[in-house]
Specification:
This protein is α/β, with parallel strands linked by helices and about 425 residues long. About 35% of the residues lie in helices and about 25% in strands. Helix 5 crosses helix 6. It starts with a strand and ends with a strand. The structure holds N-(iminomethyl)-L-glutamic acid and fe (iii) ion.
């Protein structure tokens, strides 16, 4: 059979193949490793996977890539980012280094609101231009698909601007971007003391923004695909002390669910308000952060099929040591996912390999569990497990070649970039 490309002789090829759904428990340690592995790619898809002997015996390709000595694996799927924003918060970072806390800075009108001011002031073109180099850095570190949240606009026009920026960057950049509406990221200053009124406003924004897809695609000249007409696919709420209550989150997420949006929730990052339980009650696609979640809540998540998106870059970024208990989530059979949470306040980190290094040390996840969490499980958390996140015949050819001799080096080393070559939809986009 003919193929466009064969990648062969990989020291280790990680297929991360799984029958259906995300990996849980002991299955997270099975990466479907093929020694001396090979991959045949035709157009955008994987057409063959196996040993070098098998694949070279079965396919003829115009192009061959010798991966001797290297690890080959699926691209990272980053399921939680705030990568679209304007400006930076280096000043706040220095204040935190000097002893101020994130929540003190937020209460004093800084934090998220400071990025909201910068993002509101930026034009669509500025926002796109400021974000593009961050996406370039993510791609260079192996991220081939990323979820992106709004939440720095906090009014209809500026949330819309953020959604259009996501659509524009999705059209321009090799990384596929999946949009999440996070109008409930903070109560904006103009609604201070009137949180419930802002919640009502967010609920009004929902249908306007979710259904504005065709209009925005006209704006950015984006190819309209029948399956992707929505400007936002998911809705998210920051449910925590100093942000939104469980009651407010429930109202917003129920309204989003009625519109057919998937649900995500910032849960238990600082205080346990019961947001993980709410995620289980609503059948959310994911609950994210989960630093202070109890075991009984983990079990409720497992029963409801809610995946846990853990974000160790945020705890590290805040200079804290109370990391989420990744081991406990694995033990309780919750599918665990890892994300960067890239944002200007708590975690400006474009590198998924660095997130894996943190997860191994502080979430007590094995290198294999961390890799499964950042690929296949992350794809499932975004409703894309059927065509992303593993190297299997029929799946999209989003493939990394790593400059390491063994996959465990991914979590073992840190501070340098192990990613040497990136293929997105079968096209070489890095290296
Ligand atoms: O996930 N928790 C809320 N949102 C972000 C922080 C965003 C910001 O500080 O700008 C987070 O940590
Ligand atoms: Fe976040």
């Amino acid at each position: 059979m003919k193929a466009d490309l064969i990648i062969h002789s990989a020291r280790q090829l990680l297929t991360i193949a799984a029958p259906a759904g995300p990996k849980r428990g002991a299955a997270m340690n099975d990466l479907g490793l093929v020694a001396d592995g090979a991959l045949a790619i035709d157009d955008e898809r994987i057409v063959g996977v196996g040993t070098t002997r098998e694949v070279l015996g079965q396919f003829q390709a115009r192009q061959k890539l010798d991966a001797s000595g290297h690890v080959v694996m699926p691209g990272f799927v980053d399921p939680h980012t705030h990568v679209i924003f304007a400006g930076d918060r280096a000043d706040e970072f220095e204040r935190r280094v000097r002893g101020a806390t994130y929540r003190e800075i937020m209460a004093a009108g800084g934090g998220i609101m400071s990025t909201v001011r910068a993002t509101r002031a930026a034009s669509l073109d500025q926002l796109v231009a400021e974000t593009r180099p961050r996406l370039d850095a993510m791609l260079a570190h192996g991220t081939t698909t990323a979820e992106v949240k709004t939440g720095y606009g906090l009014d209809t026009a500026n949330e819309f601007k953020m959604l259009v920026a996501i659509a524009a960057l999705d059209a321009q950049h090799p990384i596929d971007l999946i949009p999440t509406f996070l109008g409930a990221h903070a109560v904006p200053t103009e609604y201070a003391g009137r949180a419930d009124e802002y919640v009502a406003q967010v609920i009004q924004m929902l249908p306007q923004l979710a259904d504005a897809g065709n209009f925005a695609m006209g704006v950015v000249g984006r190819r309209v695909e029948s399956s992707r007409r929505r400007l936002a696919e998911f809705a998210d709420v920051f449910c925590d002390e100093g942000a939104f209550t469980v009651e407010q989150a429930r109202k917003i997420l129920l309204a989003a669910k009625q519109l057919g949006l998937g649900l995500r929730i910032h849960a238990d990052e600082f205080a346990n308000l019961g947001a993980a339980t709410l995620a289980a009650e609503l059948g959310a696609a994911s609950a994210d952060h989960l630093v202070v979640t109890r075991r009984d809540e983990m079990r409720a998540m497992a029963r409801a099929g809610v995946v846990a998106v853990l974000l160790p870059g945020t705890t590290f970024g805040l200079g804290q040591t109370n990391f989420a208990d990744g081991r406990a989530f694995v033990e309780e059979n919750v599918p665990v996912v890892l994300g960067s949470d890239i944002n200007p306040g708590t975690a400006w980190c474009e590198s998924m390999p660095f997130i894996l290094a943190l997860a191994a040390r502080y979430l007590k996840m094995t290198p294999a569990e961390a890799i499964a969490a950042a690929t296949l499980n992350a794809a499932h958390s975004l409703g894309r497990g059927s065509y992303l996140g593993s190297l299997e015949v029929g799946k999209q050819a989003d493939v990394l070649l790593l400059d390491v001799p063994d996959y465990r080096h991914l979590a073992y080393r840190f501070g340098s970039n192990p990613v040497k070559v990136v293929f997105k939809k079968g096209k070489r986009v890095v290296g």
